[in-house]
Design a protein that fits this description.
It is a single chain. The protein is an alpha/beta fold. It has one domain: 3-Layer(aba) Sandwich (Rossmann fold). Helices cover 41% and strands 13% of the residues. The protein is built from ten helices and eight strands. Strands 3-2-1-4-5-6-7-8 form an eight-stranded mixed sheet, with helices on both faces. α1 packs parallel to α2, α1 packs across α8 and α3 packs parallel to α4. Bound molecules: nicotinamide-adenine-dinucleotide.
Length: 305
């Protein structure tokens, strides 16, 4: 289904990204396996992470090249896009998946912990997408408007909130918003942008307090996440600007920020009248939360990374 599609997959040396890379290659894609190879908190680097997955794909008869560029570096992200085009002559798909965690309660969170998480997730997604979009705009101007796809990675933490993750949740909510804007802007160049909010057993979730215990079940196998990402990357896929919840065999489409109920008046509200009117609004609106589904699946409390 992805025959000859050229795909960049960031953070593909481990966890969910590695499964994306292996599935994409098995479906005929030519894959740029990008991974800085650092620790879960983003410190350090290890070139073998990306290379090992690229080697595995080639050993299985597929096509892949390794990239160890950091997505958080604007120029390195340009190199990553160039690597795809120089190696395989094209670029059809970008899967923004690289990620780190620096969990901390807000009152203790340091500036660096905030900045580093935003840099990898939010800016990293912008960086790679920005350079890919420029390449695609040029292709489109040159008359080649074939279907291209961006698949971003958000999180239930960003869509529903999660204690200890001010930095990460803000980045992930931003990625969901960026997806919607990019989908609107890039449609004219034949580019679709969608986003997933996954739950899976990886080193990130295994280090999250309260999560590791129930994560041994097959429903949390990271390879469960990849089929929907592969589908969103296919040429015939009609979805654009959507956010999907994914875990086990479940794929849900989010309704986004949706106005549940409202109060209205002619002209402008007086504050005291508004206060009375707003008394009719619910204090909390019930939504189908992925966090709740996760807690049920784990048979206890718990939240996705
Ligand atoms: N595992 C879950 O349940 C879950 C839940 C919600 C969202 N996510 C998201 O899924 C994505 C994959 O996470 P995972 O759970 O597989 O974790 P992981 O740690 O196994 O994989 C993330 C990979 O990203 C790489 N990376 C980090 N910084 C990078 C950078 N600057 N440039 C290039 N590569 C970099 C890491 O080296 C690592 O191999 C992340 O965006 C994460 O936030 C995961």
């Amino acid at each position: 289904m992805l025959e000859k599609r050229v795909a960049i997959i960031t953070g593909a040396g481990r966890g969910i990204g590695r499964e994306h890379a292996l599935l994409f290659a098995s479906l005929g894609a030519r894959v740029v396996v990008n991974d800085l190879g650092g620790a879960p908190d983003g410190s350090g680097s290890d070139t073998s992470a990306a290379q090992a997955v690229a080697d595995e794909i080639v050993a299985l008869g597929g096509e892949a090249v390794a990239s160890t560029d950091s997505v958080s570096d604007y120029q390195a992200a340009k190199r990553l896009v160039d690597t795809a085009v120089e190696t395989f002559g094209e670029l059809h798909v970008v899967v923004n998946n690289a990620g780190i965690l620096r969990d901390r309660m807000l009152v203790s969170m340091g500036e660096q912990e905030f900045d580093d998480v935003i840099a990898v997730h939010l800016k990293g997604t912008f960086n790679v997408t920005r350079h890919a979009a420029e390449y695609w705009r040029e292709k489109s101007k040159g008359g080649d408007g074939g279907d291209r796809a961006i698949v971003n990675t958000a999180s239930g933490s960003g869509l529903h909130g999660n204690v200890g993750q001010t930095n990460y949740a803000a980045a992930k909510a931003g990625i969901a918003a960026m997806t919607i804007v990019n989908a609107m802007e890039l449609k004219r160049y034949g580019v679709r942008a969608n986003c997933i909010a996954p739950i899976a057993r990886t080193r990130l979730t295994l280090q999250t307090p309260g999560m590791s215990e129930g994560m041994g079940q097959p429903v949390f196998d990271p390879e469960n996440i990849s089929p929907v990402v592969a589908y969103l990357a296919t040429e015939a896929c009609p979805f654009n600007g959507q956010v999907f919840s994914v875990y086990g065999g479940s794929v849900g489409i989010y309704a986004g920020w949706s106005i549940a109920e409202e109060v209205t008046t002619e002209g402008r509200w007086e504050v005291d009248q508004l206060a009375k009117a707003m008394d009719s609004l619910p204090r909390k609106v019930q939504v189908n939360s992925q966090m709740q589904a996760l807690a049920t699946a784990m048979g206890a409390g718990g939240t996705p990374a």
